[in-house]
Amino acid sequence: MTELVGQLINLLAAILLMLSFAMISQRRILSLIHLFTAQGATLVAATVLVGYATQQPHLYISAGITLLLKVIAIPLLLHRVITRLDVRWDVETLINIPMTMIIGIALVIFAFNLALPISKLSVSLARGTLGIALACVLLSFMMMITRSKAVPQVIGFLSMENGLFFAATSATYGMPMVVELGIALDVLVGILILGVFLFHIREQFDSLDISHLEKLKED
Amino acid sequence: MTGLGAFSQLLEIVMALLLAPLLGGWINQWRAWLQNRSAPGLLQPYRMLHKLFNKESVVAEHASPLFRGAPYIVFGCMALACAIIPTLSTDLPLSPAADAIALVGLFALARVFISLAAMDVGTSFGTLGARREMLIGFLAEPALLMVLFSASLISKSTSLTTIVETLAHRDLAIYPSLALAGVAFTMVSLAENARVPVDNPATHLELTMIHEALILEYSGRHLALLEWAACLKLFAYSCIGLALFFPWGIAEAEAPLALLLAMPVLILKLAIGGALLALLETLSAKMRIFRVPEFLATAFLLAVIGMLVNILLGG
After folding, report:
1. ipTM over 0.85
2. Which of A1, A10, A136 to probe by mutation at the B interface, max B CB count within 10 Å?
3. Nearest C-alpha neighbor of A20 from the set A108, A110, A147, A119
4. What's the predicted TM-score (pTM) here?
5. pLDDT tens column, B25-41
6. What is the pLDDT of residues B127-140, one digit of tens each?
7. Which residue of A has its CA nearest to B313?
8. How far is A138 from chain B (nearest CA, A)?
9. Residue of chain B whose alpha carbon sits nearest to that of A132
């Protein structure tokens, strides 16, 4: 039974990785938010399973917080933001998706290589998934680099936090409750501040393209 | 080689030849229902084949023997492919003849001949179709190979029967790598069988057609063979998918009773798969031809990630 739960966790980890790649190649902002919601839901399921398999009730609480925050609250907030910014149907022109994907594969290989010795030392149930969590973090990082619009960058940031959370769950069965609550609050405050920023960027430059921020002077 | 083995081999080939047009008709019916059209009869593909076989075959004046021979070669390749994929039983005398890699080679052989034949007559549409077909083919093949490799990493063999035996008769286990490979395989088979996001099987609009452009010059019995081969290809791909990802119900060697059960199970699985394919086709819109490399690169990437995950998580 425990073995089957372990395999289910592995499966969820693979789905997380797949969603990360889907986010990299997604052009539409609305679909991006849907993908982010799905990622959060997968994360909740994985956390509940780890909690069940290792008999650690505090993981249920952190799964609950994740559910409230990343599956319900933040997607709702993002939906409101893109409706008010009127970028709901925006399609971002991404250059060279196949190239980004190949870099993505290289990142995944790098992360797996890095995690392999660590997971050999570990005895935890989901030790194999550390590499996947690391790969998710790196992929979200790359998404933040390759995007030029502000909203996808915010989503990249949030998805990076998802990867970190998953790494913590799989490697050490979750962080202490205080840390977890702190991070949850940080993310919530972060998204609120970023939301305000988005409106300001928009007001200043009439566009959400952050390449405008590179100029120091007004011309 | 046992008598039962030979029997199940024969049964498999006959069943593939007979059921393949039915699968096509079944998918067309579902497509029509889902799009609020009235559906053609379930047996429409058989009627079409019958009509075409009775018609005179008109061949262009400057056609070389290659043009006449290609339909037979393509049909033969597809029939052999259907014979080596374990659909009913894993006890197949023909299956040592070709493993997973050779199977991909068989599909490639058929593709090369149909493309050469399309260019042979020298019409612009044929050449256009052939080029597009090769573009899709050279991107889809590596992805298909990677999918098959992910499955063979689990069973440590590239022989299709061994793969199916290991996957079907194991303790219940979930392989994350197969989940990734499954998504990649779906994308590849949509591209390879000229289904909607890549090519529309029902279109005759010049600028968008791929498969139809290839066979535009054929008529009569040649066209019938090619249409039948296209049905067989779809059937073969469905069976590979079922064998790799849903292998339950396929009979082992020395089990005549299981063979009896295997047939209704296979038909049920194909019926569900066909309906799902029609749903997928209805939900998605055809993409521009320049988006296809992106689509197939994603499939390749997912298959590679599947392999990597398999190595990381140890199967």
Report:
1. no
2. A10
3. A108
4. 0.88
5. 999 999 999 989 888 88
6. 988 999 999 999 99
7. A128
8. 15
9. B309
